[in-house]
From TrEMBL:
SUPFAM superfamilies: Family A G protein-coupled receptor-like (SSF81321). One of its GO terms (cellular component) is membrane. It comes from Pan paniscus. The gene is OR1L4. This is Olfactory receptor family 1 subfamily L member 4. Keywords: Disulfide bond, G-protein coupled receptor, Glycoprotein, Membrane, Olfaction, Receptor, Sensory transduction, Transducer, Transmembrane, Transmembrane helix. InterPro entries: GPCR_Rhodpsn, GPCR_Rhodpsn_7TM, Olfact_rcpt. GO terms for molecular function: G protein-coupled receptor activity; olfactory receptor activity. It comes from the Eukaryota. It is found in: Membrane.
Length: 311
């Protein structure tokens, strides 16, 4: 056991990345560097636009600004290390570095999911109970929802990382992924991972499925309420306030469910890499475009921000 622990701690891991083909490293670096810049700049603009326009100081945009901040943190945990590895021959990450990356990745990803659930609740109250909206969604309640989202997510991450730190790694140290995710790291362990897999699946179901079910319930209630609106214009107006959020939910949860809600025996390296890129890089990059292109309030806020910068 001492040899196993010594090996895992001193040697660290090798991140195989998206491709082992040397000719693809520089093109992949360029692509993901541009995507990371778009993610950072786009989400910063969303935050600044919301902060600078008093008309956007509402619960919906409070959660959106925090979602944008989490998306920046989320991608920063993964992409910079991936970019370094594209240009490096060793592609090594230390044992502690791997656990730290795993911790913050799960913390920010789970906070994202809880914020998406909070935004669904906001739409539910706005559409189904508009007369009580100011009471239910007052600033103090929104802040409590944000603090609860962060607290649950970080406790979940701490539990998972402590569980992973008890495993031993005595054979291959090559992680067939571009970051330290749970499934590919579990694949390398020479410990008995059956109990860990069971705990991970059970706890993941409890933590990740809860906000997802909250979103499903909210939209079922919204659909029932909207269908009762007599005019087609009224129905379209109500649904249009949910379109951007629903698009992000489908992109985020579609890939998350595909990657994590399967047994370890069904883990597929290439398919999981593609799905993971979708929710770790592509979705955070698309969020600013999704929330701004079809949102008149955000367009006005961004225009006001632009005028303020150039004035």
């Amino acid at each position: 056991m001492e040899t196993k622990n010594y090996s895992s701690i001193t040697s660290g891991f090798i991140l195989l990345g998206l491709s082992s083909n040397p000719q693809l490293q520089k093109p992949l670096f360029a692509i993901f560097f541009i995507m990371y810049l778009l993610t950072a700049v786009g989400n910063v603009l969303i935050i600044l636009a919301i902060y600078s326009d008093p008309r956007l100081h509402t619960p919906m945009y409070f959660f959106l600004s925090n979602l944008s901040f989490m998306d920046i943190c989320f991608t920063t945990v993964i992409v910079p290390k991936m970019l370094v590895n594209f240009l490096s021959e060793t592609k090594v990450i230390s044992y502690v570095g791997c656990l730290v990356q795993m911790y913050f990745f799960m913390a920010f990803a789970n906070t994202d999911s809880y914020l998406l659930a909070s935004m669904a609740i906001d739409r539910l109250v706005a559409i189904c109970n508009p007369l009580h909206y100011d009471v239910v969604m007052k600033p103090w309640h929104c802040l409590l929802m944000l603090m609860g989202s962060c607290s649950i997510s970080h406790l979940h991450s701490l539990f998972r990382v402590l569980l992973m730190s008890r495993l031993s790694f005595c054979a291959s140290h090559v992680i067939k992924h571009f970051f330290c995710d749970t499934q590919p790291v579990l694949k390398l362990s020479c410990s008995d991972t059956s109990s860990s897999q069971m705990v991970v699946m059970t706890e993941t179901l409890a933590v990740i499925v809860t906000p997802f079910l909250c979103i499903i319930f909210s939209y079922l209630r919204i659909i029932v309420t909207v269908l009762r609106i007599p005019s087609a214009a009224g129905k379209w107006k109500a649904f249009s306030t949910c379109g951007s959020h629903l698009t992000v939910v489908v992109l985020f949860y579609g890939s998350v469910i595909y990657v994590y809600f399967r047994p370890l025996s069904m883990y597929s390296v290439m398919k999981d890499r593609v799905a993971t890129v979708m929710y770790t890089v592509v979705t955070p990059m698309l969020n600013p475009f999704i929330y701004s292109l079809r949102n008149k309030d955000m367009k006005r806020g961004l225009k006001k921000l632009r005028d303020r910068i150039y004035s």
